[in-house]
Hints:
Blueprint: H1 2-13, H2 15-31, H3 35-54, H4 57-66, E1 81-85, H5 91-97, H6 107-118, E2 123-127, H7 144-150, E3 159-162, H8 168-179, E4 187-192, H9 196-205, E5 211-215, H10 231-254
Parallel strand pairs: 1-2, 1-4, 2-3, 4-5
Amino acid sequence: MFFVLSKILFFILAPFNAVIFLLTGAMWAMHQKRFKLARQLGLASWLVLVAFGVLPTGRAITAWLEARTPYLTEFPARVDGVILLGGFIDTELGFDRGTPQVDGAQDRLTEFVDIAREFPNARLIFASGQGALDQKGTPEGQMIQTLLDRQRVYTRSRLKIDDKSRTTYENAVNAKAIANPREGENWLLVTSAWHMPRAVGAFNSIGWKVTPMPTDYQTNGKVGLLPDYRGFLGNMALSQTAIHELGGIVVYALSGKWKPSVTETPKK
Length: 268
């Protein structure tokens, strides 16, 4: 039930969808000759477009999220395992074309490969199933091994795959069940910097303290008042991602699936 409700909520809150809902309401109000309501809904849709498509609102939220977990300029001295969260494989396109296709968050894969090579004895976990509401399609977990083989990272003997999880919280639960981490072990978590606050909080909520390794940055950390260089559509897309992450943290926290980090200093 939580999975379904969260998908519906984020669908409604997405800026593009909110504009469509508001404009549809405005057209209905005009048809009903409720012109004052139509103007109000039209104005609301315009405000959403300006706030998230013109002003750097999405950039500001994303920069704030990315600043929550600083980038580690050096690997920790000891690494017992590495967890890579999915979200960068277009499984349906890959299935149709007969070869895995990587999308814009491919920095997650690059970071994971670098760490896997640096620590050849570290255990590896890839966590990502099918996040679609209808649960149809090919899970990312069924394509990750092919991508790693192409990177000449032969991890079959130490890679475990979770292809059942649907959410970030389930990523954490299933990864912990696979890893069965011992006290004092140092596990790295690799995901996009803007996704890291929600991911680390999910791991914290199940009592597993991991070391964040953020990547795939979308901002340089600076925010001004001028429109973002991405243009209108780019700003709307970034805003949608930012609102999804911020809303996810709120929903997770209210449902006991997220806890803030006490410390993010890697274990020595």
